[in-house]
Amino acid sequence: MDMSSREIRMPLSEVVAVLQDLNEFVVSLDRLGSRQASGTADDYTVGKFIADWDVARRLAHARRVISVALDAQLSEEDNAEIDALCDQGRFYGTNGTIGPYQSN
């Protein structure tokens, strides 16, 4: 499927909500990375941020908002192709590892 010229419509309110969440995560993780580099934050701090800010649920919601729009506007075949592409992602803990992603 040629995705370069395809467009998907989404309600502006949902796009803004997802964008707000993503912006909070990007800025916060950047700040946490800077604090780790300077020695004023550790892995516990990052884990606490992820838990306290409900990062997993909020990211799952963002994924769901986009998936609903795709499902409603694309064919089953196109959605299956997108699902297959997403399944090729890098996932923490894949292949029995418990550390960060490692290339094969």
Jot down its keywords:
single chain, 104 residues, mainly alpha
Can you describe this structure?
By secondary structure, the chain is mainly α. It has helices spanning 12-38, 43-52, 55-73, 76-87. Helix 1 packs antiparallel against helix 3. The model has no long low-confidence stretch (mean pLDDT 90).
Topology:
Blueprint lengths: L11 H27 L4 H10 L2 H19 L2 H12 L17
Quaternary status: single chain
What is the C-alpha radius of gyration, as a whole number of Å?
Answer: 17 Å
Determine the fraction of residues in helical runs and give it as a percent range: 55-70%
Outline the low-pLDDT stretches: none
The topology string of helices and strands comes to HHHH
Terminal CA distance reads 28 Å
Beta-strand percentage range: under 5%
Number of strands: 0
Return the structural class: mainly alpha
**Gross morphology:** elongated
Compute the average pLDDT: 90
Provide a concise account of the structure shown.
This protein is mainly α and 104 residues long.
